[in-house]
Amino acid sequence: MSPNEPDLAASSPLPDPQEPRGAASQPSPGTAPPSLGELQAEQQQQQSQTQADLTSTWQHQDQQGSDRGPGQPPVEHRTPLPEQAREIVRLFQCPCCSVPYKDAVTLPCGRSICKTCLPETHARISITYPALPNRSQAFRCPFDECNKEHVLGDCGVDVILGKMVQIMQDEIERAKADALELKLSTQIVIKDPLEAAGIASLVRVVNGGRLAATWTLAAEGGLLFEAEATYRESPSSPPREDLTNLETESLSRVQEALRGEMDCQICYALLYDPLTTGCGHTFCRPCLHRVLDHSRNCPVCRQELSINPLLRHGSCPPNKNIKRIMDMFWKDELVARGETAAAELAMRLQDLEPLFICTLAFPMMPIILHIFEPRYRLMIRRALEGDRTFGMVLPRRRRQSGDRCFHGLGTLLRIVRSEVYPDGRSLIQAVGLSRFRVLQHREFDGYTVGRLDRIDDVSLEEEEAMEAAEVGAGIQAAGDNHDEDRGIHTQDADNDGDAAHVHDDSSRPGIPPRPMRVADLDRMTTQSLIQYATGFVARMRAQSVPWLADPMLRLYGECPDDPAVFPWWFVSMLPVKDVEKYRLLRTLRVRDRLKICGAWIIEMETAPW
């Protein structure tokens, strides 16, 4: 039960000494009693206050001109040209129905369509975690470039895109009224995508300038999303210069009105790398990343988010429509915003965390530490004076000169209680916040500090996909075996009329039997895995095993039934080797951790004592 797996984390010594800093982007549970349930409750209670403080700080920074730096002038916006009317209208057209968006929905893949254009949904099968009511229905993405299954609950109405469409419609109505007074109309030559197949271009005369006429044509369903358009002056139109000035003025009003909707509600600056959540709100990716360090809830509506907290571009693509709109209207400001974001990231990468090379710790779990070494007394004192956080890593033996003396994965802890003795020793209680990988490290005042990279689980969408794939394959295999067994038993019954075969429920496809081998765990649903594990704990507690004694339960709390929490509780309680426990820190899925726990249970129940 102790395979020597290669270490996934690799760190290198830091070249330049730097003063260690606290991790300002980590959660703040506050002071908590030893009970796990109370620790978690108080940690959740602190999240809202921490997020409010964080938002207030960022707002103050924005008011001080943090986007451009002190003394730098604001970026001037270049108004799009009237000749770009077709490109502008396409930004607000649904790719499915070709009319301007109505209740626009941004999909998890970053593309947007009308709510009424959502494909037909189907019930999701073979998924038991998290099994939330709003995640029971899904649909296949209508875009060939994606073609993934999207959960209906992850597709909220895009708030910003909806407001921008309304702004465009209001300006179009105003422009049409002005055009009516001037008797202005535009000839639009529609180049149909099928023109190459022999279909001639269509010419339409529509009231208004180029932008208003193009929008009106799209709203009437006369302009396909892929179609191109060129413009001709109407004989009754005003002089070219007057017409251009009129259309430019209209575009300038659109640009100014739209800009008011493009600020991130966390940093109050222009959206940078915009990411739209399942509830329909859009934020800068770096801002949302920092918020998710504290809370899994949307900063605006407080709905729980199911996205991967790391917000990798592969699993959490940006809002493609909003990116194109910003590139059209505020390209220069967007470039300046990117430079500022890059500078902020470079500063954050210089932050160093103190590392306690001692033992294993796990997220959401409490740990009590006796601090007596002088170097760690200094480290803990500095942590208490700062943000009360430090990293815990497991020591390991150096194999050769230059190797680090600790494993590369660890857990960030926050001190929730401390008691200092007269001789300088201290007793502290801390709780696990998150996992990390050590990227670089060095010695500082006798203890180790390092640059850390936070580790988070995959998104719920990826978690559910893994369960569906594994359980679905298991059901198929069980069904094939069932058919073979049924044929054998039918033959036996034909040979012996008195023979009767009764199938046990556990042999039916879809009902996994009690696992006898580690391979059997793959066929079990996530809910079956947690039931199997908690059932084992109940049996062991009935036998009064030492590792479930009252002192342990008072520290770690009662056995949780939440699949996301149980593995961390179980590994904290179970008497297995540290090299085995360390495996859990490597995992990125709840299901993988439950299967590791299940493998431990199988070995304990089948081992000869």
Automatic annotation (TrEMBL):
Biased composition (Low complexity): 38-56
Record-linked InterPro entries: Lon_prtase_N, Lon_prtase_N_sf, PUA-like_sf, Znf_RING, Znf_RING/FYVE/PHD, Znf_RING_CS
PROSITE patterns: LON_N, ZF_RING_1, ZF_RING_2
Pfam families associated with the record: LON_substr_bdg, zf-C3HC4_2
GO MF terms, alphabetically ordered: ubiquitin protein ligase activity; zinc ion binding
Source organism per UniProt: Tolypocladium capitatum
Keywords: Metal-binding, Zinc, Zinc-finger
Keyword flag Zinc-finger: yes
Domain (RING-type): residue spans on this chain: 94-145, 264-302
Gene3D superfamilies in alphabetical order: LON domain-like (2.30.130.40), Zinc/RING finger domain, C3HC4 (zinc finger) (3.30.40.10)
Composition bias, Polar residues: 57-66
Protein name: LON peptidase N-terminal domain and RING finger protein 1
Domain Lon N-terminal, residue spans: 350-605
Start-end of Basic and acidic residues biased regions: 480-507
Region spans: Disordered: 1-79, 480-516
